[in-house]
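Entry 14. Structure prediction run on the chain below.
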Amino acid sequence: MNETLEEKLVKEGWLTPQQFINAKEEQKRLKKSLYSVIVKLGYLTEEDIFIFFAQSCGIPFINIFDYKIDPYLLALFPEDLYYEYLFLPLFKIENTLYLAMVNPLNAEFIDRLKKEIDLEISPLFSSASAILKVLFDFFGPRDYFLDLEELALTSSLNLPFSRSSERIKVNLSVKIKFKDTRFHLISSQPIPATCIDISRDGEAIGIETIIFLPPCSRILVEFSSFSKELEGEVIHCTMRGKNQYLLGVKFFNADKDLLRNILGKELDNL
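Output returned:
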């Protein structure tokens, strides 16, 4: 891995300077990857390492145990291929297949899958142990060794937040109800979230929540102070931190009266 990425571990507060020095010394002694050594020393968990990778390249990290795995999607690829590349199909939305992967920057492999199934591929980070647990449950256990150093994180992805109009900053508790039948969450309970901004035209909002929801998925947004719900579509979902995601949601039918009730005089000039 390049030095810049390693230095981010200290700069971004994942490790103290002394922990970084200790890990580098242990790495030289053991001749192992730095990231494997960090986990071995107990400074970070395996999941922490993958979240660090995800934040460094702008690809969301997801907890695959939030979702029900579809056996039909697992049948898309041979069992050996899953263990060779350590990935997992999570859900299909329109013409896009979302994959949990230990290395979502393996462009050559992703292009290969696109040609095999004639679908777009949207890769997401997930930890090796989580993917293996699901594969073990479906196919049975195998011996598997992953060297974290093999993940070649050399590219970046920066997804812009969709802005249909000027945004008004807010801080409102909301609940997200899942309305999409194309994939299923483990929990049927509403997802707690916070609305952080609303477009002045009343057509879109920004929401911070605890779970990744793919673009084009349909949801209901319930504002805690009101009994009315608004139906919308996720335009994009980006990662803010561990279990922190930013959703851009566009409503199918904007309700300016509801927004006036929420924001009061802020929308008087509409």
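The longest strand covers residues 229-241.
Filed with the rest of this week's runs.
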